[in-house]
Specification:
The structure holds 2 protein chains of 2 kinds.
Chain A (H helix, E strand, L loop, with lengths): L2 E3 L3 E5 L4 E8 L6 E6 L6 E6 L3 E5 L2 E6 L4 E6 L8 E8 L5 E3 L3 E6 L1
Chain B lengths: L3 E4 L2 E4 L5 E7 L5 E7 L6 E6 L6 E2 L6 E3 L9 E3 L8 E8 L7 E2 L3 E5 L1
Parallel strand pairs in B: 2-11
Antiparallel strand pairs in B: 1-3, 3-8, 4-5, 4-9, 5-6, 7-8, 9-10, 9-11
The chains are: A mainly beta, B mainly beta.
């Protein structure tokens, strides 16, 4: 079966760095996506990786290793507004997105 | 403002009733999707449409139907609601084949 695993919840301190991991097992691979979802709101697109390596976009970076079935989202200089759930999703061989359950990130002052 | 509009934003209905959740997008995206999101579970695909006139079943299609008469509209119908369909429903759209989805604000449905 297809499976996306990510931690249920993480806590970090304002101004610090946090890394949210995602491992996946899917039938085929056409890219890995990270979305941010604030409580009570819709998910919004953060990043896309299809090749191995690190993609940096401001305070957020996303890393992919296809051979290991592994990705992480790195958030630097954490701000209170970064408190949200972060969803990892993989596009499979049928171009359908398989979603992880999400990681709830709690930022403390 | 370009985007996706869902209606209603919240609804309580009795089991056995018929309910249609509406979704309209103005981005001219080919693909549209309906997901449900339940606590502790990832987004689960109910139905999708890659282009107007075609629809497909997702992971959890039972009890739901969709239609795609034109590019902009993608309504989701619950023919006879059951309590297990209590959830938050998100409509989304994208250019076909891409994973960058644009989501509506969600419809919170409670079936009693």
């Amino acid at each position: 079966g297809q499976n996306i695993d990510q931690p249920t919840e993480m806590t970090a301190t304002e101004g610090a760095i946090v890394q949210i991991n995602c491992t996946y097992q899917t039938s085929g691979f056409n890219g890995l996506f990270w979305y941010q979802q604030h409580a009570g709101e819709a998910p919004t697109f953060l990043s896309y990786n299809v090749l191995d390596g690190l993609e940096e976009k401001g305070r957020f970076s996303s890393f992919l290793s296809r051979s290991k079935g592994y990705s992480y989202l790195l958030l630097k200089e954490l701000q209170m507004k970064d408190s949200a759930s972060y969803l990892c999703a993989v596009m499979d061989s049928n171009y359908q997105l398989i979603w992880g359950a999400g990681t709830k990130l709690i930022i403390k002052p | 403002i370009a985007g996706i509009t869902q209606a209603p934003t919240s609804q309580i209905l009795a089991a056995g009733r018929r309910m249609t959740l509406r979704c309209t997008q103005d981005m001219r995206h080919n693909a549209m999707y309906w997901y449900r999101q339940d606590l502790g579970l990832g987004l689960r695909l109910i139905h999708y449409s890659n282009t107007a006139g075609t629809t497909g079943k997702g992971e959890v299609p039972d009890g739901y139907s969709v239609s795609r008469a034109n590019t902009d509209d993608f309504p989701l119908t619950l023919a006879s609601a059951v309590p297990s369909q209590t959830s938050v429903y998100f409509c989304a759209s994208s250019d076909a084949g891409t994973g960058e989805l644009f989501f509506g604000e969600g419809s919170r449905l409670t079936v009693l």
